[in-house]
Request: fold
Amino acid sequence: QKGGSTLGWKYLTTFVKRRAVNYNKFISKPEASRKSCSRLSPYLAYGNLSLKQIFQATEDFKDNNRFINPLQNFQSRLWWRSHYIQKLETEYQIANRCINIGFELQIRNGQETHELAFYEGATGFPMVDASIVCLKKTGFINFRMRAMLATFFCFSLWLDWRKLATFLSKVFLDYEPGIHFPQLQMHAGTTGYHTLRIYNPTAQSIKHDPDGYFVKKWIPKLKNVPTPLIYEPWKMTAIEEGFYRCKIGRDYPYPIINFDEATRKHKHIYWQFRNTKQVLNNLPKVWEKHCLPENITYYKKLMSKKIEI
Reply:
């Protein structure tokens, strides 16, 4: 996307008049979201458009029954954008340290070779690699794929969120520090209170790229591999590799980890640490600074019931 207010208004106009109709339907789809999402985040990040201008424009078109629900959902995300920016403005230190300072004592010591493979889009997990290649070439992937990359990096590879923050800040066209750091920490689990959601790359492929279009677009070596093999190409037989002209280990890498085993192991380590005193004792301060009053009450009730939140 090129910059400037003129193009920003063009994106805004096409969204509220036409593209928003599929906003709810395709927001999680890695390919379809490239058109159905607003794509306004770079223009907000660089100040080409203001939040007020975008909000007012969406208000003008909500009278159209086809657009009421998607535009309301879009506006709620504008609210969350401001909410997360406020987190960084309230405590700027979280750009470099964990929101819950107790997690500073947890060492995530994944392998450097795995980290480099991630940056190169060579993990052997098609949806992860396609997202990295797409990001490097266009600067945009949708929210769900960003969350998947974060949880894969922090839990499956067991690497520190700060390394990922540095890498992504260089490839996101819409890099906004106020969203970047709090969101990454939420996915990395370093707040100590958010629900832990880990996104399985294979499951995301099956659900949100069922025909493999996004993967094949950004990883041409896999263009001849059909579904369902495109989701887990390492399971191809030698005959299938020859037939589809894709040799795993040569044309496309084997997975660098066993996803289920690695993620299960690291989640166990994480939860053991999350339930330690140094993390739990910091929660009241974190809640007071970063949560709405009604949410604080909710989190306290969950903690009293010893539910993994």
Observations:
- The first helix runs from residue 5 to 17.
- Residues 65 and 261 are 47 Å apart (CA to CA).
- DSSP finds 18 helices and no strands in the chain.
- The mean pLDDT is 95.
